[in-house]
Design goal:
By secondary structure, the chain is α+β, with helices and mostly antiparallel strands. It has helices at residues 16-27, 33-40, 44-57, 89-97, 124-134, and strands spanning 4-5, 14-15, 76-84, 103-108, 115-121, 141-148. The chain folds into two domains: 4-57, Winged helix-like DNA-binding domain superfamily/Winged helix DNA-binding domain (Arc Repressor Mutant, subunit A); 76-148, Lrp/AsnC effector binding domain/regulation of amino acid metabolism (RAM) domain (Alpha-Beta Plaits). The strands form two sheets. It has a four-stranded antiparallel β-sheet with strand order 4-5-3-6. It has a two-stranded antiparallel sheet with strand order 1-2. The longest helix is centred in the N-terminal third of the chain and has 14 residues, at 44-57. It is elongated.
Amino acid sequence: MNGTTKNLEGKAPVDGTDQRILQYLSTNARISFQEIAHGLGVSRATVHERVKRMVQSGVIKGYRTEIDWVKLGYPVVALVALQTEQGQQSYYVLEDLSRIQEVENAYLITGRFDCLVKLRAQNHEHLQHILFDQIGQIRGFRHAETMVVLSTPLENNFLSAFSD
């Protein structure tokens, strides 16, 4: 990487220092600007101004809490690839998915399937209930292929590509 990341419009919203700040924040959103500054060998004011600029430009969209889903009783993660009816029915699928509390993310995708859903369940019986009684009853639903996640050895790994 040449130290600058370009967006689709050709603008350079972040440089190498910004990328390293983003690494720190993505690992721990509560880290102090002083700790980041010390790790990067820059001033706290520099970190503050760069973070402020990235927030204003929309590069940083917000700060989130990382939840331990196992401790909350939802250890089962499944990815469900959905085929749907085409046309107006597709909107119903997304609307109905948004009402299922166990759905964490939904992605519109290309290929054999139309939508990829990440969901969390308490156990395999609960997963079956979600698949048959909720997802299977969605308007516009045609077919699903479910994959149960065994482990997650890499998660939120994108920014590690920018490490020194």
